Each structure stands twice: as C-alpha cells, then as structure tokens.
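Rotation project, supervised by the postdoc (A.L.). Task for the rotation student: set up a whole-complex structure prediction and record inputs and outputs verbatim in this book. Inputs entered:
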Amino acid sequence: MSAPIRWTLADGRDLLFFALPGRAPVPVADLRPLSPRDPEPSQLRFDRTTGQWVIIAAQRQDRTYKPPAEACPLCPGPSGETSEVPAPDYDVVVFENRFPSLAGFRRDNDRSAGETAPNSFISAPGNGRCEVICFSADHTGSFADLPAAHALLVVQAWRHRTADLLGRAGVEQVFCFENRGEEIGVTLAHPHGQIYGYPYLTPRTAAMLDQARAHRVTHGTNLFADLLAAERAEGTRIVAQTDHFTAFVPFAARWPVEVHLYPNRWVHNLTDLTDDELDDFAAVYRNLLGRFDRIYDAPLPYMAALHQYRSDGAQADGYFHVELMSIKRSATKLKFLAASESAMDAFIADVTPESVAARLREL
Amino acid sequence: MSAPIRWTLADGRDLLFFALPGRAPVPVADLRPLSPRDPEPSQLRFDRTTGQWVIIAAQRQDRTYKPPAEACPLCPGPSGETSEVPAPDYDVVVFENRFPSLAGFRRDNDRSAGETAPNSFISAPGNGRCEVICFSADHTGSFADLPAAHALLVVQAWRHRTADLLGRAGVEQVFCFENRGEEIGVTLAHPHGQIYGYPYLTPRTAAMLDQARAHRVTHGTNLFADLLAAERAEGTRIVAQTDHFTAFVPFAARWPVEVHLYPNRWVHNLTDLTDDELDDFAAVYRNLLGRFDRIYDAPLPYMAALHQYRSDGAQADGYFHVELMSIKRSATKLKFLAASESAMDAFIADVTPESVAARLREL
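Outputs recorded:
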C-alpha cells in the first residue's frame, strides 16, 4: 500500500485517502460553511461505584440522523459542497468525526483515580480521537461484498490508523469497529466503520487483561493462547480455519450470533501482522461476514470489534483478535439487552454456541 | 401484609397470591395440559477471558412472544384454562417463570473457577430461580398508575421474595427488576416485573463490591454512603428527597435517563427496611416512575433494577438501592448500545446528568 494522501476539511479536520494500486485520488476544496470545532467536545467522568470511565458528549444529540441517500455525507462530493469527502471518487477514506465523542491529544492528561478524597467527583477532559472510515464510495453494499483487494485496503487503512494513533499523546487504546444495521442504531447506511482512540483502557479490555494477568501468575502462560488451543483441540465450535487464523464461537458466547477470530500466532495488534497474515486476515474476515449475511438470508445487523493492545506494560498479555456479534436471534426476532444484561451484566444466551457454530460452518 | 396464599400450577410451579387488606384470593385449579418442566433448563458457562458467568438457556427461544390482549397469560383466568393465574381476580401475584433461565436449588453447586487446568472449559448447572410478578390484574396501566396501597403491596411482595430466596440453597443474589416497553424487548404488555435468584454474583455487582472493598481499605468508610453524602451536598443532580430516601442522577450516568434511589440509612436489602421506610420507598419509587412518563409525554421504556445484597461476607459493603434507566434519548430517538458500549463497555452519554436532573425535578 502506498502512503495515503492527506487532505483538510473546511473546519480543519484531517481526511486521508487510501488508494488501490494504480489509482490516484483527486480531492477538491471543501467549500462547506462548517461551524468551528469545539476543541473539547466532551468530558470523562469516573464512576466510583464501578471503577469505569463514562464519556459525557452532550453536543452529539444533533448529529446527522438517517439522511436520504441523495444527501449522504459519506458519498463522494465532486463539488466540494455536499459531502465529508470532497472528491469525484475514492476507494477508502478516513476522516475525523464531525460529531466526536473524544477529540484532541494531551500528554498531561492524568486519569489516575487513585489518591482522592473519599467523596470527590473525578473527571477529566474528553481527549482522544474519533474517526470515520468509509469502506467504499459505493453507497450500497457492505464489507462482505468488497472485492478481495478492496477488503485488504480497508484492513491496511486500519493498520495505518492503529500505528498512527498508538503514537499519539494520551491515546491508551485504538479500537477499530463497525456497527452495521438500523437495528443497532446505525444512522448512516453508507458502508463505513469507526476508529476510536480512547484515552483510557475500556472496561471490558481492562477486565480481560486482569484475567490474563491472573492466568499468567497461576499457569505461567498466555490466557488467550491457551483458550485458542483448547478451542482448536475441542473443535465443536470452530467456524473456519486458515493457515494463519482460527474463527470460533466462544464456549461462553453472550450473543445470539458471536464469532471470535484469532491469529494462530500471538500478536498484539494489526501492526504486528506480516503482509501474508494481513492478506489472510482480510480474506477470512470478509468470509465470516459473508456467512453472517447468509444465516437468515438477509443482511445481518452486526457489530465488529477489533481488540488491539500495546505490546508492553499493563497490555503485554493482550492478544489481538476480532469479536463479531449480532443481536438477531432468529429471522424475525432481536435479542434485547434488558435488565439482566444492562443493569447487572448478566448475559442470558438463547442458543448453544455449538449449534451456532455448526450452522455457520455449513453456510 | 398478611401471608400470601400458596397455589400450584399444572406443571408443579409455585404461585403466590398477595392480597390487599380485606381481600381474599379465590384460586381455581389450573387445568391447562402443560408439558412437564425440564429440571435443568440451562447451563452456566464461565468466560475465562472476562471472569464472568454466562447463562446458556437454549430452550427459551419459543417463549411467549407478544400475544394478543385477549390471550394474555398474565390476566386472571377464572376458567383455569387460559392463564398463568387461575383465578377470577387478583391483586399481586408471583409465580415461577414457565420459560426460566435458571431453575432448582442445589447446595452443592460449586461454581469456584479458581483451581483448574489452564485450558479447561468451566461450566455448572443453571440452578437458581426466575419468577414473574404481576403488579395488577388490570392488563393496561403501569406501576406508576397503581394506587398507593397497591404499590406498597408490590414492594411488600418484593420483600417477601427477597427473604424467601436469600434463604434458598445456592442463591447468591436476589434481583427484583422491571423491563417496561417494547423498545427494550418486552413481549408481554401486562404490567409485570421479574425476580431472579442468581447462583453467582452478577458481574456488575461484583465490580461494585470490588470498588467498595478498595474504598474501605483506603478510607475506612462505605463507598456508597460517601457518594450519597456527596450527591446530597452538591445538590445539582438531586431529583427528589424524602425523610428516608434520596433520588439523584449519578455523576457519571451511562443512560440518557438514569436515576438512582438510595435510602438515607445504609441497609443491604428490602428486608432491612422498617415499615415506615418501606412505605416511603413505595411512594418515592412510584413518584419517580411518574416523572419518567412525563419526560416525553408518553410511556417511557425503562429498566428498574433493585440492587440488593447479603449483609455479610463478600457482600457486606453493599448498599441497597434502585437504578432506573431508559434508552430513550429524545421523544423520537433511542440510545443504542453499539460497539463502544456492547463490545468494550465504554459508555458514551449524549446528555449531561445535571440537565437530566433539572428536567426530572421540574416534572
């Protein structure tokens, strides 16, 4: 992949063009009269009852909500007056979210919550990064529909953003993800994902690293590598295997459709993968999303979450992987996260992981 | 409150009638040809990557789904042939869920996950209890609409169930809750709640108790009492105060509408409240739900979660309280739990807790 072309939007936001071999982006000036950006659009607040940070981003209430296709801000805008991507065409683009939950980089952002008065409220600036990644200029379609080379370009863009953001001051965790489908609240139909640079370790990641640390103390090995080996040995929940990757429904799956995709070799994030491994990753990832759409013969609403880690310190035992999940529990019914899940984090699954894996294998 | 009348449904499930003063239930035989119950309808599986139990309850897929009002299984069934409540009328009833996620009590249920091989899969029988509580025989209406004495009867029934289930073998935590509204997946419109007896500490409760233990080590005091005092001192997020209770939007609220209700006196669960306090609790709880329905001038979809604790051991620092939350972020829009929340537990709130508190105060 050649280096992306850098561009700047009317309100100063970064825009990056990632191009397929032989293609050259031709951006035009962004002529939209955009309001200046709020340098600190959000606040972090620490929930002392759970030990978790919450992002309070109050001005996002008016963000773009289900625009008609002809007003899609993610389609190419050759006039420079209609779109977040002022250009006649593009392959893959990444730009800063116009309505970010996190913005700005600050090295002195102290989020330690240890030594405080027993009754104080703890907050911090909402620094970090929220980016949008458009998978294709085509308003319809999905990641699963991309040609192989195009899917690889998206993955290369993820790798580029991961390397860049991990190097920024105050970014603790880089999270590439996709929300797909109105059923989970997606307000823009154009195929796209998002990339967050969190200024703290997210609660689920922190919990997983705690488990991995305890496992290493007890057994002297990496938790995720041991579990991957166990899934491969048992076999009943395997969905797909390639030279470099293994996909399985986890033993204790929480979602009606859930698949985890691990590289067979322990790495921390996308930047550690060889070109061969990255190629394989793009192919198997796309393959899994294709199976998702065939479960109910309709586009499946899903969330795709890339779990990435730094290679040292508290994140040293992290193991790069993707967690794919859907709330659709049958062709016509959704799984809702009601009080047991939402208030107590106690998940109740309606299907056995083994039956879901068998179904996904045969698709 | 007089002792409830005990009854047995056709498949052997318990049914309890709680009656208003001067009223006497007149149940009839349950004549429905119900299938025998599965004694172990689910399995617990331990997610070693997060340290959390997941309930796999695969036969609930066919549970009752949005029946028409005339076929409502929670309305009184005087013939004994149509309803979960075979009686011409009732005030408040509690019965075992016909499609339970947890069932049966077992003292030898060992769920310790400590000393295991590094790559083993850990599971346990899905023991515990799932009960349904019908707030009223009236198919329409809601908790907020109940007369004061009737709301108190519901709260008394919660207290009864809490005392009973805390005494059962293998029940670690008693969770009284209500899911209200189709938007969060409620499939029966009849006003009702649920009561779970979990065989493990739910993940959110465990996280809160960890925080409370660390707080006591550092400060020597109860975390929740300190935070309640801080909220009362600051005042900006208070929604309602009575002699015995304080309701506030928490400093780090995760949901578009969220209110926590604490007794001013530290207790562990409903069974610790005096009759005066229970009276006050029913009144302020009903008052809060009334405010909820006035926010958007329409019935608000909500979840109500009673956080209850045992008074000793690992739960000794627990502080009884209710967490009320709604996913409705405006009159027309819902907050969806997409990848940041669902995959990483990283919540992003679209409104400031202070603005929500101000709105709820004035309603």
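Student's summary: Chain B touches chain A through 86 residues (CB under 8 Å).
Supervisor addendum: The helical segments of chain B are 148-166, 203-219, 223-234, 275-295, 339-344, 353-362.
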